[in-house]
Design a protein that fits this description.
heterodimer, A: mainly beta, five-stranded mixed sheet, four-stranded antiparallel sheet, 0% helix, globular, B: mainly beta
Chain lengths: 111, 113
């Protein structure tokens, strides 16, 4: 039932930018894209969200394609502490509060 | 603010027993969620609520029940526990609207033997 597709795993060298893709081809016009990450067995942590414009905060940047069918989360200078599972989610249905997480991408940052 | 508080943090149940996982938030959030996470897997939505008195099923509701009598509390009831319900359970809440960030509790680790 998840509306997003992400690669299962990715590696990134420490200090390099990590670019995590997400496909959300069925996204509706008023649905936001949210990114979360989960480190070990902790509760997921919010990273960033966006509607159609690119967004940046102190943690990451979010690039959303013009057709909104995909997005990329960018961690500009990955550190070992960024090793985590990253989830891209969109709300299911325009008039519900239902939020479905997919399997996410396991990002391994290597020294 | 305490945020989202879940109790208990750990629990071992015998097959067939019942229990309630408690979740409380002090942020006056309308939306509340229960997810489960099996080892090595992603989060699966069990139930969610958009406000007091309103609940709806998620992806994996079988074997669970919820109620939402107040804005603050969203307990999850397990009836007739089964080994398949061994998992980590996360409660989350968010404010109304598109931009509401999800706030998660620390999780409740349940083992059914």
């Amino acid at each position: 039932d998840a509306k997003t597709t992400q690669p299962t795993s990715m590696d990134c060298a420490e200090g390099r930018a990590a670019n995590l893709p997400c496909n959300h081809s069925t996204i509706s016009g008023n649905e936001y894209v949210y990114w979360y990450r989960q480190i070990h067995s902790q509760g997921p942590q919010y990273i960033i969200h966006g509607l159609k414009n690119n967004e940046t905060n102190e943690m990451a940047s979010l690039i959303i394609t013009e057709d909104r069918k995909s997005s990329t989360l960018i961690l500009p200078h990955a550190t070992l502490r960024d090793t985590a599972v990253y989830y891209c989610i969109v709300r299911v249905g325009s008039n519900t509060g239902k939020l479905i997480f997919g399997q996410g991408t396991t990002l391994q940052v290597k020294p | 603010n305490a945020g989202v508080t879940q109790t208990p943090k750990f629990r071992i149940l015998k097959i067939g027993q019942s229990m309630t996982l408690q979740c409380a938030q002090d942020m006056n959030h309308n939306y509340m969620y229960w997810y489960r996470q099996d080892p090595g897997m992603g989060l699966k939505l069990i139930y969610y609520s958009v406000g007091a008195g309103i609940t709806d099923k998620g992806e994996v509701p079988n074997g669970y029940n919820v109620s939402r009598s107040t804005t603050e509390d969203f307990p999850l009831r397990l009836e007739l526990a089964a080994p398949s319900q061994t998992s980590v359970y996360f409660c989350a809440s968010r404010a109304q609207g598109n931009t509401g960030e999800l706030f998660f509790g620390e999780g409740s680790r349940l083992t059914v033997l």
